[in-house]
Design goal:
Keywords: DNA-binding, Phosphoprotein, Transcription, Transcription regulation. Helices cover 50% and strands 14% of the residues. By secondary structure, it is α/β, with parallel strands linked by helices.
Length: 220
């Protein structure tokens, strides 16, 4: 059973999400919060698998709530998916850098919303299709961040290749095909890269790949 925490300051939005999620046999909403501070508190109390967090809220916004969840070792198993009414680039960057597993616009289709919850709990990177292109373009337009590539020295050549493919949006099965290895070996390369780079999930590998310069317009 996938345990979900809803964090949104609009009761109507929360009730709609709850109705949609509770109708699924493999998902249950364990708690609701009206702001980020309460969301962090309830995350610690209930230890959900996925926290669906509105980006703009009073008291503590979604970005700061995500940052607090990501920084708490006790909440390492909580996958945060940021929700917003707008696909604004600055929110995408801040959410991913804060530790979010993904980012969805609230007008997403119900079937895609439910799929997002299941994808997030697997630790896969999740970005709304309408946002992904601008996200990548923004990353490759910026110079690598100073010191962001330091972690590259700890990766093997195959692990680097796997990280590049993750940044391109490939699944483990597709990575395996590209690298001519088994899906299990592909998963091993990805997981080892995550461990060495202290990445919470695949979304963090995407951030690292672009900020370190491992992925550039030339090799994208």
């Amino acid at each position: 059973m996938i345990r979900v925490l809803l964090v949104d300051d609009q009761p109507l939005i929360r009730s709609g999400f709850r109705a949609l999620l509770d109708a699924e046999d493999d998902i249950e909403v364990v708690a609701e919060a009206a702001d980020g501070a309460q969301g962090v508190e309830l995350a610690r109390r209930h230890l959900p698998d996925v926290a669906l967090v509105d980006v703009q809220m009073p008291v503590v916004d979604g970005i700061e709530a995500t940052r607090r969840i990501a920084a708490d070792p006790a909440l390492a198993g909580v996958h945060v998916v940021i929700l917003t009414n707008y696909g604004l680039d600055e929110y995408v960057f801040e959410a991913l850098r804060a530790g979010a597993a993904g980012f969805l616009v609230k007008d997403v289709e119900p079937v895609d919303f439910l799929h997002a919850v299941r994808v997030a709990v697997r630790g896969d990177a999740l970005l709304a299709p309408s946002i992904t292109r601008r996200l990548i373009d923004r990353y490759v337009a910026e110079p690598p961040r100073t010191g962001a590539g330091d972690g590259l020295k700890w990766l093997t050549n195959r692990e680097r290749e796997a990280v590049v493919l993750v940044a391109r949006g490939l699944s483990n099965d597709r990575i395996a095909e590209h690298m001519v290895i088994s899906p299990l070996t592909a998963k091993t390369h990805v997981n080892r890269a995550m461990a060495k780079l202290h990445a919470r999930d695949r979304a963090q590998l995407v951030v690292f790949a672009y900020e370190s310069g491992l992925v550039t317009p030339r090799n994208r």
